[in-house]
Write a structure and sequence with these properties.
The complex is a heterodimer. Chain A is mainly alpha-helical. Chain A is 52% helix and 6% strand. Chain A has 22 helices and 7 strands. Chain A has a 4-stranded parallel beta sheet. A 3-stranded parallel beta sheet of chain A has the order 5-6-7. Chain B has 3 domains: 177 residues, Rossmann fold (3-Layer(aba) Sandwich); 74 residues, Cytochrome-c3 Hydrogenase, Chain A, domain 2 (Irregular); 29 residues. The chains are: A mainly alpha, B alpha/beta. Chains A and B meet through helix 1 and helix 9 of A and helix 16 of B.
């Protein structure tokens, strides 16, 4: 862990897109107004592209003519350890990798991609927040960032089997789908476990869980270590290959989806022999193909919080709305919903970083104003991390809003087998 | 010719009436866009003026400028304007030769130091110490520097002395330059053109004699009254340009109908001069009226501005070849640079230490 290793790591990360993004930045500052850490604090240091300043200088000093010349002449000062320490809170505490800046950039620079890459150098130089380091250690050593183990899951499964009367397949070779969960779902929102079982049972799909790869969150991606991220992804890939499944179901967890669906094959350096599908994508497929049937509607006013990794990084926008429209008669959109939705403030490792708590709750004012605009008491979402963060923010601001998971909501409206219309 | 004779006395001797002289002054005043009452003032001033001493130095030139002024057609008031001045040295026109000729220049310089006008035609070669053009064993450069010292003002007649002209054209073997490239501490008027219009020369001289000052000048130090508009602005074929009627060859219907010569390379739109209004040969015509486009001779570097027969809108260089060359060179540099960068990233990848939880 030293400065040189960090700088080396950043050089290693500078690829074609990085170089073209840095050289095409026109310094317009439009990304500032796209970032909730800037809009809610009005502090210029939270301008997204500014968070990359040390890495930008490394790019100039290593890869550009003038940068190299000035560096050689000693006119461009080298990046120091102190500087990286100063940037640590900017790169980790005030960025949730939500992707809103990338969307706002008029020249198409993917700033989120750059922050993700800069974190590689930050982590290699030892400048990652303690909270995320600990979460990563737990993920590697214990099996999940929150410390839940396969035994915790097994206890929940036993409970759920009793509650639903449905047998839970574990390590079933030859199943179509492998279900993986996020540790928050196992530890906090465990009602999703029986909910998923009931839906899959009704839809009649062949599925299983794996005792070696049951958890899909990826602290390696949040801290910015592709080596560790690959190790975590590999657990699921190995289980899926061992069980010969055709699909792996990403849970209601934003960055787990990003890690599996988008970064996964690049991390392990080969294509997956299976497809990755988000649980909401799967539910939408099942519903549109008639295998998933719901009954009744709720007339409570409801809105939907789009998890950043699903809408902006993943393109899953219509699916949750298709599902909600079947069961919610009074669905309203928040202002700036869908692809422009504002982050809960806790993505990208921020929720695992206690140092950032105060800032995270401060910038939750953006979500509060979004909610205040439509005065809705029930907010549905499809990411367990968003859900925790939303609940904390709502508590902090003494708001009267209830947050529920979309999968559970669907399960509540699941048509009983007897109610199924005959084909 | 007596030195202290006034112009009106001199004209009367030549049989030129006062009425003819007034007409000349009025024409000059209107050409120079001066208010009408200044014609009378000019006549009065010119008639009374004592002739200032003028030294005319001819350097790397063809004598066309002098020809333009003195031989353009049968003697007129323009040529007689020489009578307004005491031309003390002009090696083409003077009778004296050898040491006597040089002495007359030295005398004029001594007697009228700080008051004489210096007229220059021809460019000054400076390569090899100026050896490419010498007079009486001295280089043009040397003569100009010496003579300019005592001059009240310098009038550069013709494009060579104004901007370097044809001797200055690429590859300029003699290192020909303009007067203004050498003399920087004297007022200089450039009367460009190859050759310049005679009445422009006389107009500037008359202005100096009447008002004691030089006329208003443009950014290239040319009198604004003559060089303020382009040939194209005042061209009688301008309406055809505006209607998009162009001659495509010198013998097509368009050419016969007198249509615009833009596509045949006329440089009128970028050339500032008075040809289209004062015309040449006693007001007979000017080049475009004879069916040939303007060459742009009163503009700097007119000889190097591409073919006289290429339209102004056509590029001077070969665009395809230049672009292809630039693209190939650029691609070569890019490949070299990117391979350097690739090596650097490759080395960083080689140096990568696998991160484990112990490293956190």
């Amino acid at each position: 862990m030293n400065l040189q290793r960090g700088i080396h790591s950043m050089i290693e990360q500078i690829d074609g897109p990085m170089a073209s993004f840095f050289s095409s930045c026109v310094h317009c500052g439009l990304c500032a107004d796209a970032c909730l850490f800037y809009t809610e604090t009005q502090e210029p240091k939270y301008t997204p592209i500014y968070k990359l300043a040390p890495m930008r200088r490394i790019w100039q000093q290593q890869f550009t003519f003038w940068g190299r010349l000035l560096f050689k002449l000693g006119l461009s000062k080298p990046v120091t350890d102190e500087e990286l320490a100063e940037w640590e809170p900017l790169v980790y505490d005030s960025c949730t990798l939500c992707g809103r800046c990338s969307l706002a950039c008029p020249v198409g620079n993917d700033i989120t991609y750059m922050v993700r890459k800069m974190r590689e150098g930050m982590a290699a130089s030892g400048h990652a927040p303690e909270g995320i380091k600990e979460a990563t250690r737990r993920a590697i050593e214990l099996g999940s960032p929150m410390g839940v183990t396969i035994n915790t899951l097994k206890a929940h499964i036993k409970h759920a089997e009793k509650e639903t009367g449905i047998a839970f397949p574990l390590d079933l070779v030859g199943a179509d789908y492998l279900l993986v969960l996020s540790s928050a779902e196992i530890a906090v929102f465990s009602e999703i476990i029986p909910a998923v079982a009931r839906i899959f049972h009704q839809a009649g799909i062949s599925w299983t869980m794996a005792s070696d790869g049951f958890e899909a969150t990826n602290s390696g991606i949040q801290i910015g270590s592709s080596d560790l991220a690959a190790e975590l992804v590999n657990r699921i890939v190995k289980s899926a290959e061992h069980l010969k499944v055709r699909y792996v179901i990403s849970p209601e967890c934003g960055h787990a989806y990003t890690a599996l669906r988008w970064e996964g094959p690049n991390l392990i350096g080969r294509p997956f022999p299976f497809e990755v599908v988000h649980i909401i994508e799967l539910l939408d497929q099942l519903q549109s193909s008639g295998r998933l049937k719901t009954t009744g509607t709720t007339d409570a006013r409801m809105t939907f919080h789009d998890p950043c990794q699903m809408v902006r990084r993943g393109g899953v926008i219509d699916q949750p709305r298709n599902l909600l429209n079947k069961i919610a008669s009074n669905f309203v959109e928040m202002p700036e919903s869908g692809i422009q939705n504002w982050c809960c403030g806790g993505g990208g490792g921020v929720s695992a970083n206690p140092r950032a708590d105060e800032l995270r709750l401060k910038v939750f004012s953006r979500k509060k104003s979004q909610l205040d605009a439509i005065a809705v008491k029930t907010m549905v979402t499809s990411c367990s991390n968003c859900r925790s963060m939303l609940e904390e923010g709502i508590e902090h601001y003494h708001m009267d809003t209830n947050v529920i998971g979309l999968t559970e909501l669907i399960a509540e409206h699941l048509a009983e087998p007897s109610e199924e219309p005959k084909p | 010719m007596k030195d202290h004779e006034t112009l009106s006395e001199r004209l009367a001797e030549q049989g030129i009436s006062r009425r003819a002289f007034l007409k000349f002054c009025t024409a000059l005043a209107s050409l120079m866009a001066l208010p009408p009452e200044s014609a009378a003032a000019m006549a009065q001033a010119l008639a009374k003026s004592l002739r200032p001493s003028v030294i005319w130095l001819s350097f790397q030139e063809c004598t066309g400028c002098t020809e333009s002024l003195t031989r353009s057609y049968t003697p007129t008031l323009e040529s007689l304007i020489f009578d307004m001045i005491s031309l003390d040295y002009h090696h083409t026109l003077q009778a004296a030769s050898g040491f006597a000729a040089e002495k007359s220049r030295e005398d004029a310089m001594k007697n009228f130091y700080g008051k004489y006008l210096l007229v220059v035609d021809g460019s000054i070669p400076i390569n090899g110490g100026g050896v490419y053009s010498t007079i009486a064993g001295r280089t043009n450069l040397d003569l100009l520097q010496e003579t300019a010292k005592g001059a009240a003002a310098i009038i550069a007649v013709g494009t060579c002395s104004s901007f370097g002209g044809i001797p200055n054209a690429r590859p300029n073997p003699t290192g020909a330059v303009a007067v203004s490239d050498i003399v920087r501490d004297k007022p200089i008027v450039n009367i460009s053109g190859c050759p310049p219009i005679p009445s422009v020369i006389t107009g500037v001289l008359a202005h100096y004699l009447t008002f004691g000052t030089l006329p208003d000048l443009d950014d290239l130090n040319r009198p604004r009254s003559y060089y303020g508009t382009t040939i194209h602005d005042r061209c009688y074929r301008r309406p055809f340009y505006d209607q998009g009627k162009f001659a495509k060859t010198f013998d097509d219907e368009g050419a016969k109908n007198g249509w615009c010569l833009f596509e045949l390379g006329c440089k009128g739109p970028t050339t500032h001069n008075a040809c289209a209004t004062t015309k040449w040969n006693g007001g007979t015509s000017f080049p475009i009226e004879s069916g040939h486009g303007c060459l742009g001779c009163s503009e700097p570097h007119f000889w190097d501005a591409g073919s006289f027969y290429t339209p102004l809108s056509a590029p001077v260089v070969n665009i395809e070849a230049t672009t292809l060359g630039a693209a190939i060179a650029g691609a070569g540099v890019a490949v070299a640079m990117s391979s350097l960068d690739r090596n650097k990233i490759h080395r960083a990848q080689q140096a990568h230490e696998i991160m484990s939880v112990k490293d956190l």
